[in-house]
């Protein structure tokens, strides 16, 4: 951000100069200024400072967008969905709160071939399991936004009597470049 220096015209303004105490120099009859009154000095200082005060810019908005982008992590691609809602399914409200709890960001690294519950709240849990292909690293990643999207879409599609259950498959990043693991996920009662 740059600040243009103000001209000194505000200091030599006739209105401002009239309010300053003066005496006449007896040698050359020109006015001289006595020590400035403290209030006038404060006013002049504030006026000079205000001309260079920072203004709200898009820089702050850009920082917020960058933080939001970092808080939303997608490590997986589009998922399939299968209805599993029943009387034994978790409460929709618990699944919504679980999703809200991870909205600040996060990535879960999971070992291939192991089932793992990544997040849970109340009656609701979200878990994953993946089997790898030959040459694939031993881990895969699931981002917070992947979980939030799957939970919200499952609720949208399958909620029943305040309950929801679902499962599906989504390709998720591994440690290998351009390689993905087919990750089976479930939204189930904890």
| Poorly predicted ranges | 1-20, 50-56, 59-69
The tally of helices reads 5
Average of the residue pLDDT scores: 77
**Class per helix and strand makeup:** alpha+beta
Kindly, what is the distance between the CA atoms of the first and last residues, rounded to a whole number of angstroms?
53 Å
Order of helices and strands: HEEHHEHEEEEHEE
Strand content: 25-35%
Number of beta strands? 9
Largest sheet: 5 strands, antiparallel
Rg result:
33 Å
- The structural domain count equals 2
Domain Ecp2 effector protein-like: 75-172
Protein name: Necrosis-inducing factor-domain-containing protein
Pfam family, one: Hce2
Organism: Paraphoma chrysanthemicola
Fold and architecture overview:
The protein is of the alpha+beta class. It has 2 domains: 8-58, no CATH class; 68-189, no CATH class. Helix content is 31%, strand content 26%. It is built from 5 helices and 9 strands; from the N terminus they run αββααβαββββαββ. The strands form 3 sheets. It has a 5-stranded antiparallel beta sheet, covered by helices on one side. The longest helix has 15 residues, at 144-158.
